[in-house]
Write a structure and sequence with these properties.
Length: 224
Protein backbone atom coordinates (compact mmCIF):
# COMPACT_ATOMS: atom_id res chain seq x y z
CA UNK A 1 0.00 0.00 0.00
CA UNK A 2 1.55 3.27 -1.09
CA UNK A 3 1.35 6.15 1.35
CA UNK A 4 2.35 9.80 1.49
CA UNK A 5 3.46 11.47 4.70
CA UNK A 6 2.73 15.16 5.18
CA UNK A 7 2.98 17.39 8.26
CA UNK A 8 2.86 21.01 9.33
CA UNK A 9 0.59 22.36 6.63
CA UNK A 10 0.04 25.41 8.88
CA UNK A 11 -2.89 26.47 6.72
CA UNK A 12 -3.62 30.16 7.26
CA UNK A 13 -0.09 31.15 8.22
CA UNK A 14 0.82 34.78 7.68
CA UNK A 15 4.32 36.24 7.45
CA UNK A 16 4.64 39.96 8.19
CA UNK A 17 0.86 40.31 7.82
CA UNK A 18 1.06 38.74 4.37
CA UNK A 19 -1.32 35.79 3.94
CA UNK A 20 0.20 32.63 2.47
CA UNK A 21 -3.18 31.14 1.57
CA UNK A 22 -2.74 31.40 -2.21
CA UNK A 23 0.69 29.76 -2.04
CA UNK A 24 -0.74 27.08 0.23
CA UNK A 25 -3.55 26.40 -2.21
CA UNK A 26 -0.99 26.09 -5.01
CA UNK A 27 1.11 23.72 -2.88
CA UNK A 28 -1.86 21.53 -1.95
CA UNK A 29 -2.87 21.30 -5.61
CA UNK A 30 0.64 20.13 -6.45
CA UNK A 31 0.35 17.50 -3.73
CA UNK A 32 -2.96 16.31 -5.19
CA UNK A 33 -1.26 15.97 -8.58
CA UNK A 34 1.55 13.85 -7.12
CA UNK A 35 -0.92 11.65 -5.24
CA UNK A 36 -2.82 11.02 -8.45
CA UNK A 37 0.30 10.36 -10.55
CA UNK A 38 1.92 8.10 -7.97
CA UNK A 39 -1.33 6.28 -7.16
CA UNK A 40 -0.99 6.96 -3.44
CA UNK A 41 -3.62 5.12 -1.39
CA UNK A 42 -3.08 6.55 2.10
CA UNK A 43 -2.22 10.10 3.18
CA UNK A 44 -0.82 10.67 6.68
CA UNK A 45 -0.87 14.23 8.05
CA UNK A 46 1.20 14.39 11.24
CA UNK A 47 -0.15 17.50 12.92
CA UNK A 48 -0.30 21.28 12.64
CA UNK A 49 -3.01 21.25 10.03
CA UNK A 50 -3.85 24.84 10.79
CA UNK A 51 -1.51 27.58 11.94
CA UNK A 52 -3.87 28.85 14.63
CA UNK A 53 -6.18 27.55 17.33
CA UNK A 54 -8.99 29.53 15.63
CA UNK A 55 -8.41 29.15 11.89
CA UNK A 56 -9.71 31.79 9.47
CA UNK A 57 -12.73 30.98 7.29
CA UNK A 58 -10.54 30.82 4.17
CA UNK A 59 -8.26 28.31 5.94
CA UNK A 60 -11.22 26.08 6.78
CA UNK A 61 -12.44 26.33 3.17
CA UNK A 62 -9.01 25.38 1.82
CA UNK A 63 -8.70 22.31 4.07
CA UNK A 64 -12.27 21.29 3.26
CA UNK A 65 -11.57 21.46 -0.45
CA UNK A 66 -8.24 19.59 -0.11
CA UNK A 67 -9.83 16.76 1.88
CA UNK A 68 -12.77 16.57 -0.49
CA UNK A 69 -10.41 16.22 -3.46
CA UNK A 70 -8.42 13.54 -1.63
CA UNK A 71 -11.32 11.46 -0.40
CA UNK A 72 -14.13 11.93 -2.93
CA UNK A 73 -11.91 12.69 -5.92
CA UNK A 74 -8.86 10.46 -5.51
CA UNK A 75 -10.44 7.85 -3.17
CA UNK A 76 -7.52 7.83 -0.73
CA UNK A 77 -7.76 7.24 3.00
CA UNK A 78 -6.57 10.17 5.13
CA UNK A 79 -5.19 10.00 8.67
CA UNK A 80 -4.83 13.23 10.63
CA UNK A 81 -3.53 13.91 14.13
CA UNK A 82 -3.56 17.30 15.85
CA UNK A 83 -0.34 19.23 16.42
CA UNK A 84 0.55 21.86 18.99
CA UNK A 85 -0.94 24.58 16.76
CA UNK A 86 -4.32 22.89 16.33
CA UNK A 87 -7.39 23.15 18.52
CA UNK A 88 -8.28 19.58 19.55
CA UNK A 89 -11.99 20.38 19.70
CA UNK A 90 -12.25 22.27 16.42
CA UNK A 91 -10.14 19.83 14.40
CA UNK A 92 -12.16 16.95 15.86
CA UNK A 93 -15.42 18.32 14.43
CA UNK A 94 -17.31 15.62 12.51
CA UNK A 95 -14.56 13.05 12.96
CA UNK A 96 -16.86 10.13 13.86
CA UNK A 97 -19.05 10.83 10.84
CA UNK A 98 -16.12 11.25 8.43
CA UNK A 99 -14.66 7.82 9.24
CA UNK A 100 -17.30 6.16 7.04
CA UNK A 101 -15.71 7.95 4.10
CA UNK A 102 -12.10 7.14 5.04
CA UNK A 103 -11.09 10.30 6.91
CA UNK A 104 -9.65 9.53 10.34
CA UNK A 105 -8.97 12.41 12.71
CA UNK A 106 -7.49 11.88 16.18
CA UNK A 107 -7.01 14.77 18.56
CA UNK A 108 -7.00 13.06 21.97
CA UNK A 109 -5.09 10.36 23.83
CA UNK A 110 -7.59 8.30 25.81
CA UNK A 111 -5.34 5.85 27.67
CA UNK A 112 -4.40 3.82 24.59
CA UNK A 113 -3.06 5.06 21.28
CA UNK A 114 -5.84 4.92 18.68
CA UNK A 115 -5.15 2.10 16.24
CA UNK A 116 -6.76 1.70 12.83
CA UNK A 117 -6.15 -1.62 11.13
CA UNK A 118 -6.02 -1.91 7.37
CA UNK A 119 -5.21 -4.93 5.23
CA UNK A 120 -3.66 -5.46 1.83
CA UNK A 121 -2.03 -8.29 -0.11
CA UNK A 122 0.91 -8.31 2.35
CA UNK A 123 -1.26 -8.69 5.46
CA UNK A 124 -2.27 -6.40 8.28
CA UNK A 125 -1.17 -2.77 8.46
CA UNK A 126 -1.72 -0.94 11.74
CA UNK A 127 -1.87 2.84 11.83
CA UNK A 128 -1.37 4.30 15.31
CA UNK A 129 -2.55 7.87 15.76
CA UNK A 130 -0.80 9.76 18.55
CA UNK A 131 -1.85 13.44 18.66
CA UNK A 132 0.41 16.06 20.25
CA UNK A 133 0.13 15.79 24.03
CA UNK A 134 1.61 17.49 27.05
CA UNK A 135 2.40 15.49 30.21
CA UNK A 136 -0.71 16.97 31.86
CA UNK A 137 -2.91 15.41 29.15
CA UNK A 138 -1.82 11.86 29.95
CA UNK A 139 -1.06 11.75 33.68
CA UNK A 140 -4.61 10.70 34.62
CA UNK A 141 -4.02 7.34 32.89
CA UNK A 142 -0.92 6.34 34.83
CA UNK A 143 -0.39 5.88 38.53
CA UNK A 144 3.13 7.21 38.23
CA UNK A 145 4.75 10.56 38.55
CA UNK A 146 5.17 12.19 35.14
CA UNK A 147 7.69 15.00 35.27
CA UNK A 148 8.55 15.33 31.61
CA UNK A 149 7.45 14.64 28.07
CA UNK A 150 9.95 11.79 28.04
CA UNK A 151 8.31 10.22 31.12
CA UNK A 152 4.92 10.55 29.46
CA UNK A 153 6.05 8.68 26.36
CA UNK A 154 7.82 6.03 28.38
CA UNK A 155 4.50 5.11 30.04
CA UNK A 156 2.41 5.57 26.90
CA UNK A 157 4.62 3.12 25.02
CA UNK A 158 4.92 0.64 27.89
CA UNK A 159 1.14 0.47 27.81
CA UNK A 160 1.05 -0.59 24.15
CA UNK A 161 1.33 -4.08 22.76
CA UNK A 162 2.75 -3.67 19.26
CA UNK A 163 2.55 -6.83 17.18
CA UNK A 164 5.82 -6.80 15.26
CA UNK A 165 4.67 -9.62 13.00
CA UNK A 166 2.39 -7.05 11.41
CA UNK A 167 3.39 -3.74 9.84
CA UNK A 168 3.07 -0.75 12.15
CA UNK A 169 3.03 2.95 11.36
CA UNK A 170 2.66 5.71 13.93
CA UNK A 171 1.79 9.38 13.48
CA UNK A 172 3.22 11.68 16.17
CA UNK A 173 3.90 15.36 16.65
CA UNK A 174 6.38 15.46 19.52
CA UNK A 175 9.98 16.72 19.58
CA UNK A 176 12.08 13.62 19.16
CA UNK A 177 15.82 13.38 19.62
CA UNK A 178 18.27 10.55 19.42
CA UNK A 179 19.71 10.36 22.92
CA UNK A 180 20.18 6.64 23.24
CA UNK A 181 23.03 6.26 20.80
CA UNK A 182 25.34 9.22 21.27
CA UNK A 183 24.63 10.87 24.64
CA UNK A 184 27.44 13.41 24.37
CA UNK A 185 26.38 14.69 21.00
CA UNK A 186 22.79 14.58 22.09
CA UNK A 187 23.44 16.81 25.06
CA UNK A 188 24.45 19.71 22.84
CA UNK A 189 21.52 19.11 20.51
CA UNK A 190 19.17 19.12 23.45
CA UNK A 191 20.49 22.50 24.46
CA UNK A 192 19.93 23.87 20.99
CA UNK A 193 16.41 22.57 20.62
CA UNK A 194 15.35 23.62 24.06
CA UNK A 195 15.36 20.44 26.07
CA UNK A 196 12.34 19.81 28.20
CA UNK A 197 9.88 18.83 25.49
CA UNK A 198 12.19 16.24 23.93
CA UNK A 199 11.41 12.57 23.91
CA UNK A 200 13.80 9.82 23.02
CA UNK A 201 13.61 8.12 19.64
CA UNK A 202 13.95 4.66 21.22
CA UNK A 203 10.28 4.62 22.25
CA UNK A 204 9.44 4.18 18.58
CA UNK A 205 11.71 1.17 17.98
CA UNK A 206 8.86 -1.23 17.34
CA UNK A 207 7.37 0.76 14.49
CA UNK A 208 8.26 0.21 10.86
CA UNK A 209 7.61 3.84 9.97
CA UNK A 210 7.25 6.88 12.22
CA UNK A 211 5.44 9.81 10.60
CA UNK A 212 6.65 12.88 12.47
CA UNK A 213 6.36 16.64 12.27
CA UNK A 214 8.80 18.73 10.32
CA UNK A 215 11.33 21.19 11.70
CA UNK A 216 12.77 24.28 10.10
CA UNK A 217 15.95 25.76 11.39
CA UNK A 218 16.29 29.52 11.80
CA UNK A 219 19.35 31.28 13.17
CA UNK A 220 18.44 30.91 16.85
CA UNK A 221 15.31 28.86 17.32
CA UNK A 222 13.51 25.85 16.03
CA UNK A 223 10.33 27.03 14.37
CA UNK A 224 7.38 24.90 15.35
MN1 LIG B 1 4.39 23.00 13.11
Amino acid sequence: MKFMHLADLHIGKTILEQSLIEDQEYMLNQILKIIEEEKVEIVLIAGDIYDRIVPSSESVELLDSFLNNLIKGLKVKVFIISGNHDSKERLNFGSKIFENDGLYIQTTYDGKIRKVQLEDEFGKLNIYMMPFVKPVDVKQYFKKEIKSYDDAFKYIMENENINQKERNIILAHQFITNCGIEPEQCESETLIIGGTENIDVSYFDKFDYVALRTYTWTSKNWKR
